[in-house]
Amino acid sequence: MDISIRNAELNDYESLLPLFRQVHEFHVQARPDLYKKNSTPVQQAFYESQVKDNKQHLFVAVTGKEIIGVIVTQEEEIPENSFVRARKVLSINSLSVAEAYRNKGVGRKLAAYVFDFGKSLNVESVELGVSESNPSAIEFYRSLGMTTKSRKMEMVFNERDT
Fold it and tell me: Where is the N-acetyltransferase domain (predicted)?
């Protein structure tokens, strides 16, 4: 299968919406106390603002004319203070591959593209958050050579009705 990676374009929105839904539906299922059901989790205006923002970078995986994956990234500058050193990182905010194309190297190709892109930006690292309730994603990121940097924990006091 021939897969190419390119920058997302404004007119890609409708093709990307199913991929955005896929990610959101996973989060709703995993944590209905935090995420709301929403058939349009990424509004078109928000998507367009991301594409136009020079600190956000959206890349799509394409086979033929079909978009089969997307990775959403954002450059972040962490200013130095008395506690931390200044750093520049590239954060992966979302990665989604169409179900029919999973386990075929699409996600790996998107990630490799972003790692190379991050190097070209001279960032110190590429970072992301991953849900503890998604062990396949954790294993995928480990297989790319990523390591756990920190862990976010919680103590829930008020369970919400879902």
Answer: 3-162
Distances (CA, A) of 16 to 3, 19, 104: 16, 5, 19
Give pLDDT tens digits for 19-48: 999 999 999 999 999 999 999 999 999 999
CATH number (domain holding residue 37): 3.40.630.30
DSSP state of 100: G
Residue 158 lies in a domain: no
CA 81 to chain centroid: 28
Q: Which residues pair with 62 in a beta bridge?
A: 4, 67
Assigned domain for 153 exists: no
Total domains in the chain come to: 1
Q: Is there a contact between 96 and 19 (Cβ–Cβ < 8 Å)? A: yes
* pTM metric for this prediction: 0.92
Residue 161 lies in a domain: no
